[in-house]
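Shipment paperwork, digital attachment
Item: protein structure file
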Amino acid sequence: MARILIVDDAKFMRMTLSNILLKAGHEVIGEGENGKEAIDLYRHLQPDLVTMDITMPLMSGLEAVKEIKKEFRTAKVIMCSAMGQQKMVVEAIEAGAKDFIVKPFDESRVVDALSRVLN
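Attachment content:
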């Protein structure tokens, strides 16, 4: 069971992901709507893992991953992207993200990615 922070500008996506994570036995300890919130929440909550949307207002998930990894080298981040954002996913992995999941979320894919990153 992991303590997870969910960051996505779409409430529906946060809710969907939260339901999948809770069902898989994890604890959702916080939710953010943009990259700036992601960084502040990470500092405050120090989660085991973060799911982070790539495209968000104020600060992108890509920028937020870079900032979080600068401060917390062992941070575990899984990027969430819509279809067709492969180039950004590659950039996110290069920036330190551990894995990615594609929207719309497939429950088994989300759970598999979490298992890979947490173990």
